[in-house]
């Protein structure tokens, strides 16, 4: 990878400033450009949030492959995720706009296909983001449910288990608070973002050391790195199949780094700092996340018990690990509950950052006329915040959690879109880059040089692979309660987006449009 020298000032005067570069891409500066490279990185790092992803899906990792899948599979997924991130960073450097992925698709697919490519990419990205925020905040509501349960005596001690309606209320309050915070100026969001990144890092270090040190019984290194758990209640016996399903924890965690791209219109030196934000967020998350997985897994002894709904945490594996570690040494699990609050605060910041990214994508997509009532959603207030986009994102994320009141299976189907749809949106502009624009693409300051096309194809093939793998059944026999609804949800989204294009959008949507005026 290389960094091109800045163009000569005499020849590229407009490109020497962020405002000038944005005008070249067709937009005037409406948002306040305040973010440093650290702030840009912090938002993506906070949205990735290893404490969120690993904690939420640790049960999946334990059940499908266990320690070996989590500790070794983390780097398998990480390597391919870095390929996706590098390709995205290269394109971000060339086109640093809040629209990000859908704008890139329009510019890389050629004039004939630009509107359709932009439409498909944009809707997959924005729906995936809304689903992501809903999933993050609902997972926090579920964790609070477990914390309350443990704090009042646990599952086996008469503890209070909040109903699905109370959990939904938790979710609504969390979303409301996130919308309020995201209504503040970018100066405040920059501060919260940096604090959140610091919290995530320190939280990981505290937990990865404290939990195994406090535990009276610890797993051996051989168990942590080589034990492959094939004992699951899903009726799956193929080791390869089990390993693949166990990768979901890692892939779910390592997503959301497109936030750095969506924040480029508020980032200084965006064509350099946007790509740095993407790559550094992935790289540091890989290191920090592996440490968290190792620390927790060294405190694991009895996998079936941790996954059992009859334990004190009701089957929430990491909560039970924390609780048992402190209870075994001190006679009570208060320390474990405190550890869970460290995770809960990290998840809270993750949801906050996700909504920040959502609102910027909504702002940009509506600025280009792609959304119903677009003129309303791209309005910017006196604080230079896309305020209506913020509250729309919160409302849609709230509505997306409504299926949880009827069936958690239905909600999980919606939540699966958060990973699959977003990664499809990641892959589309990369695909157009390597297939249609491999000769015409003009890189920005950051580029991959002669490895650009190779890395791009690796990224595209990886996304195609995980899209198929994560659509496979996760339990046998397959029934309406065990069916993996991911292909149904993603297929439904594709059908709706395609039909809306055929019936209506192809007649009026022309892709990204300038707002520079005459």
TrEMBL record:
GO terms for cellular component: membrane. The chain crosses the membrane at residues 37-60, 72-92, 113-131, 165-189, 196-215, 235-255, 276-300, 330-351, 389-411, 417-436, 448-472, 484-503. Keywords: Amino-acid transport, Membrane, Transmembrane, Transmembrane helix, Transport. It is a multi-pass membrane protein. It is found in: Membrane. Belongs to the amino acid-polyamine-organocation (APC) superfamily. Amino acid/choline transporter (ACT) (TC 2.A.3.4) family. This is Amino-acid permease BAT1. The lineage of its organism: Eukaryota, Viridiplantae, Streptophyta, Embryophyta, Tracheophyta.
């Amino acid at each position: 990878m290389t960094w091109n020298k800045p163009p000569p000032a005499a020849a590229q005067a407009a490109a020497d400033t962020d405002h000038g570069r944005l005008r070249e891409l067709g937009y005037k500066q409406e948002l306040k450009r305040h973010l440093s490279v650290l702030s840009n990185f912090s938002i993506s790092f906070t949205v990735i949030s290893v404490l969120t992803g690993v904690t939420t899906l640790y049960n999946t990792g334990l059940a499908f492959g266990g320690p070996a899948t989590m500790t070794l599979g983390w780097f398998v997924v990480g390597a391919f995720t870095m390929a996706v991130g590098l390709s995205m960073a290269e394109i971000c450097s060339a086109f640093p706009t809040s629209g990000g992925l859908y704008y890139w698709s329009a510019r890389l697919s050629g004039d004939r296909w630009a509107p359709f490519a932009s439409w498909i990419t944009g809707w997959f990205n924005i729906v995936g983001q809304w689903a992501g925020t809903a999933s993050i905040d609902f997972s926090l509501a579920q964790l609070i449910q477990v914390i309350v349960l443990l704090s009042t005596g646990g599952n086996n001690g008469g503890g209070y288990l909040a109903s699905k309606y109370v959990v939904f209320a938790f979710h609504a309050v969390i979303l409301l608070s996130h919308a309020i915070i995201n209504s503040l100026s970018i100066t405040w969001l920059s501060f919260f973002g940096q604090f959140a990144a610091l919290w995530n890092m320190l939280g990981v270090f505290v937990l990865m050391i404290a939990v195994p040190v406090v535990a009276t019984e610890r797993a051996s290194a051989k168990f942590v790195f080589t034990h492959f758990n094939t004992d699951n209640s899903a009726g799956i016996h193929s080791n390869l199949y089990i390993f693949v399903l166990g990768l979901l924890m890692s892939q779910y965690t390592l997503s959301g780094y497109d936030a750095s791209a969506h924040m480029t219109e508020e980032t200084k030196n965006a064509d350099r700092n946007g790509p740095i934000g993407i790559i550094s967020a992935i790289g540091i998350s890989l290191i920090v996340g592996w440490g968290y997985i190792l620390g927790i897994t060294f405190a694991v002894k009895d996998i079936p018990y941790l996954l059992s709904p009859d334990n004190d945490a009701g089957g929430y594996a990491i909560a039970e690990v924390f609780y048992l570690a402190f209870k075994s040494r001190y006679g009570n699990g208060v320390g474990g509950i405190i550890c869970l609050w460290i995770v809960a605060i990290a998840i809270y910041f993750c949801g906050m950052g996700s909504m920040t990214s959502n609102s910027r994508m909504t702002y940009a997509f509506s600025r280009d006329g792609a959304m119903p009532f677009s003129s309303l959603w791209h309005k910017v207030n006196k604080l230079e915040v896309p305020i209506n986009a913020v509250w729309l994102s919160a409302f849609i994320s709230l509505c997306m959690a409504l299926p949880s009141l009827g069936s958690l299976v239905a909600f999980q189907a919606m939540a699966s879109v958060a990973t699959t749809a977003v990664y499809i949106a990641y892959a589309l502009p990369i695909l157009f880059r390597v297939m249609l624009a491999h000769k015409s693409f003009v890189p920005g300051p950051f580029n991959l040089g002669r490895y650009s096309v190779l890395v791009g194809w690796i990224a595209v093939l990886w996304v195609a692979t995980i899209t198929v793998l994560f659509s496979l059944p996760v339990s046998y026999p397959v029934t309406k309660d065990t069916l993996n609804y991911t292909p149904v949800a993603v297929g439904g989204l594709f059908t709706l987006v395609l039909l809306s294009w055929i019936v209506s959008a192809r007649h009026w949507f022309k892709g990204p449009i300038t707002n520079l005026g005459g």
